[in-house]
Specification:
With about 375 residues, this protein is of the alpha+beta class. Helices cover about 50% and strands about 25% of the residues. Helix 3 runs antiparallel to helix 4, helix 5 runs parallel beside helix 6 and helix 6 packs antiparallel against helix 8.
C-alpha cells in the first residue's frame, strides 16, 4: 500500500472490508470525507458502481473515488482513493478556455462565411440582372438590324426614282421666269438634300445591322486614327474645331476589323465635334496602354457635356438628342467595340465636355457571330 501510494498525485488510499472495517490505509482523508457509510452500503450492495466527490481541504483540492473490491467476482470490500485535482482543474480550465476560443472562432468563421455567401449571391444576382439587360438589348438590336435590312431595301428603290426625277426636273424643266426659276431651284435643292439625308439614315441602319460581322487582321491603332484625323480635319476646320492627337503608345498594333473600327472611331469623333456648339472648340485624341494586355483610346471634347441620366441612355439605339438623324452613331460604335472584345467608358459633366475611353485588347478576340 505504501509503495502504491507514493507519487501519482495520490493523497490517501484505503481498503475497507464489507463489515466497514479499515484493513489498510495510506494517508488520511479530509474530515468532510470521513463518514461515507451510506455510500459504502450502496457500493457493497452493487447499487453504485463507483462514487466520487470533490472537497477542498485547506490548500488541497481533492477528488475522492470509492469503488467495489472484487474477489472471485464477489464484492468483498471497498477501495477508496483521494487524488490531487489541482492539476486536473488546471487542465479542465485550459480546456474550457480552448473550447470557448474554438467556439468563438467557429462563430466568426460562420459569420464570415454568411457574409461572403451574401456578398457572392448579390454579385451573382447583379451579374444575372446585367446579363438580362444585355440580352434584352441584344434582342432589341437584332430586331432593329433585321428591320433595318428589310426597310432599307424597300425605301431605296422609290428614293432612287425620286432622286432621278428631281435631277431631270432640275435639268429640263426650269421655268423661263427668273423668279420662278429661283424658287424652283430652291425646292429642288431641298428635295436633293432630304434625299441625301434619307440615304444617310438608310446607310446608318444598314451598317448597324451588319456591325457584328467582323474580319480581323493586325493593324496599328495610331495609324488608323491618324488616317481618320486627316479625313476629318477639313470638316473640323470649317466648324472652328481643332483636333489634337497624342500617341503615348505607338504603333499600338491590335487585331481589328479595320473598316468597322474606323467607322466606330469616326462616329465617336463626329459625336465629339457635334457636341461643340461654341465658335471655337477642341477634340483631343490620345492612345495609351491600359495594363499589359489592353490599349485605351481617349476621345475628349470641350463640348456641352451630358448629365448622368443622358450618359445611361446614349448606348440605346432608340435614344437621340439630334434634330436630324436617328442617333445610331454611338450604339453602332459600342457594338463594334464590343465585337472586338473591348468596352467604352464615358465621363462627362454638363457644360464641361465629355471623354470616351475606348478599351481594346491587344490579342485576338473571338467576336460574336
Amino acid at each position: 500500500m505504501n509503495k502504491i501510494g507514493e507519487g501519482h498525485g495520490i493523497i490517501y488510499m484505503q481498503i475497507i472490508n464489507n463489515q466497514n472495517k479499515l484493513l489498510s490505509s495510506v494517508g488520511q482523508p479530509a474530515p468532510d470525507l470521513v463518514n461515507k457509510r451510506l455510500i459504502f452500503k450502496d457500493i457493497l450492495s452493487g447499487k453504485i458502481k463507483i462514487a466520487s466527490s470533490k472537497v477542498d481541504d485547506d490548500d488541497n483540492k481533492i477528488i475522492d473515488f470509492s469503488a467495489p473490491l472484487l474477489l472471485d467476482k464477489k464484492i468483498v470490500g471497498i477501495v477508496r482513493i483521494g487524488l490531487d485535482r489541482s492539476s486536473m482543474d488546471k487542465i479542465l480550465s485550459e480546456s474550457r478556455q480552448n473550447i470557448f476560443l474554438f467556439s468563438l472562432f467557429i462563430v466568426l468563421i460562420a459569420l464570415l462565411s454568411m457574409w461572403l455567401l451574401y456578398h457572392d449571391q448579390n454579385r451573382h444576382l447583379a451579374g444575372i440582372v446585367e446579363m438580362e439587360r444585355q440580352l434584352e438589348k441584344a434582342e432589341r438590336l437584332s430586331s432593329l438590324g433585321q428591320l433595318a435590312a428589310g426597310v432599307a431595301h424597300e425605301i431605296r428603290n422609290p428614293l432612287n426614282a425620286i432622286s432621278i426625277a428631281a435631277q431631270r426636273l432640275n435639268r429640263d424643266f426650269i421655268p423661263s421666269d427668273s423668279q420662278k426659276a429661283d424658287d424652283f431651284r430652291n425646292i429642288s435643292g431641298i428635295i436633293k438634300d432630304e434625299i441625301k439625308r434619307l440615304n444617310g439614315i438608310i446607310e446608318e441602319f444598314l451598317t448597324f445591322s451588319k456591325s457584328r460581322r467582323l474580319d480581323f487582321c493586325k493593324f496599328s491603332v495610331t495609324e488608323l486614327l491618324q488616317k481618320i484625323v486627316n479625313l476629318m480635319k477639313e470638316e473640323a476646320s470649317l466648324r472652328g474645331i481643332s483636333i489634337e492627337t497624342t500617341w503615348k503608345e505607338q504603333p499600338a498594333q491590335i487585331f481589328m476589323d479595320v473598316n468597322k473600327l474606323q467607322q466606330a472611331f469616326i462616329n465617336l469623333i463626329k459625336n465629339a465635334m457635334e457636341s461643340i456648339t461654341a465658335q471655337q472648340g477642341k477634340v483631343f485624341i490620345t492612345v495609351d496602354r491600359e495594363g499589359k494586355n489592353y490599349i485605351v483610346v481617349k476621345i475628349s471634347d470641350s463640348g456641352c457635356g451630358m448629365t448622368e441620366e443622358e450618359i445611361t441612355k446614349i448606348f440605346n439605339p432608340e435614344y437621340t438628342t439630334k434634330e436630324k438623324g436617328v442617333g445610331l452613331g454611338i450604339p453602332l460604335a459600342f457594338e463594334i467595340i464590343r465585337g472586338h472584345g473591348g468596352d467604352i467608358q464615358v465621363v462627362s459633366r454638363k457644360n464641361k465636355g465629355t471623354t470616351f475611353d475606348v478599351i481594346l485588347p491587344r490579342e485576338r478576340f473571338n467576336e460574336i457571330s
